Amino acid sequence: MLFDSHTHINNETYNDKEREKLARDIENSNVSYVMDVGFDLESSLMACNHAQKYDWCYAAVGFHPHYAKNMGEEDLVLLKGLAKKPKVQAIGEIGLDYYRNLSDPEIQRHWFRKQIQLALELSMPIVIHDRDANHDVMQILKEEGVFSKARTDQFPRQSDGLPDARLLMHCYSGSREMAEQYVKLGATISIAGPVTYKNARKLVEVAQAIPIEHLLIETDAPYLTPEPLRGRPNKSPYVEHVARKIAEIKGLTYEETARITCENAKRFFNIR
Ligand code: NI
Questions:
Q1: How much distance in Å is there from the Cα of 81 to the middle of ligand 1?
Q2: In the CATH hierarchy, which fold is given to the domain comprising 2-268?
Q3: Structural domain boundaries of the chain?
Q4: 191: CA distance to ligand 1 center in Å?
Q5: How confident is the model at residue 145, as a pLDDT?
Q6: Predicted confidence band of residue 105 (pLDDT cuts 50, 70, 90)
Q7: Does pTM top 0.90 for this prediction?
Q8: 103: CA distance to ligand 1 center in Å?
Q9: What spacing in Å lies between the alpha carbon of 92 and ligand 1's midpoint?
């Protein structure tokens, strides 16, 4: 039982036949659930369609910071419509990317705020993309009230008594200190393939420090293929290798790690 909490069956590089093959691979694996995550309007719509088509598929809708420059007021209205469809469980992936800066930072911040406001209005979980923008991401999340009492009171407290802001730091790549700070505020941390890489010292520290109740696992396929499969395109069944690495770090069995991270993801995304 595995939950790939972040994948892109909607990736524009696939054709329909390749997507059918991915679906079959998932059905023949230990993966029970995947979250197909939108990055612009078309991919969000496609994620919604996949969620309709496949029992095991759920969707998140949003504009990735790379595509913020293409977003307009009408897109926000359309996203809101998509967010209300069945099996659409989150707004995302949204955030800031100052590494590639494919959209002007000012424009990235504007649409980041607007999409946070949409998630707050709809009381939906939020999936965050943060690359080289740690400070601004946290400041904007705080300013928009993502960690406010008004927000966290809408969700049951977590098993260790911490508030739940239903905020997911996807493909986490920051420091241990920042991860601890986020978890205290009510966020959840998602770990991807890079935790299996040789140079993953920082990410291993994060996985050690953060209690498993606050961790999800993901592929971000087709990117970031975990070891020992690095070099080929990633796909959801490979999330098993992330689970195996987390199990090793935490001193848990693979089965326990798979089950707990799956339960965490179902709870986070309100899936029963
Ligand atoms: Ni992604």
A1: 21
A2: TIM Barrel (3.20.20)
A3: 2-268
A4: 12
A5: 98
A6: very high
A7: yes
A8: 16
A9: 9
Task: Identify residue 15 by its one-letter amino acid code.
Answer: N
> What is the CA(139)–ligand 1 centre distance, in A?
22
Taking only Cα atoms into account, the Rg of the chain, rounded to an integer number of angstroms, comes to 17
Q: What is the pLDDT of residue 21?
A: 97
- What is the CA(217)–ligand 1 centre distance, in A? 13
82 neighbors 88 (Cβ within 8 angstroms): yes
Structural contact between residues 65 and 96, judged by C-beta atoms closer than 8 angstroms: yes
Q: Given this model, what pLDDT does residue 26 score?
A: 98
Q: What is the pLDDT of residues 183-231, one digit of tens each?
A: 999 999 999 999 999 999 999 999 999 999 999 999 999 999 999 999 9
Q: Which residue has the tokens 């326990």?
A: 256
- Cα 158 to middle of ligand 1, angstroms: 25
| CA 6–ligand 1 middle distance (angstroms) | 6
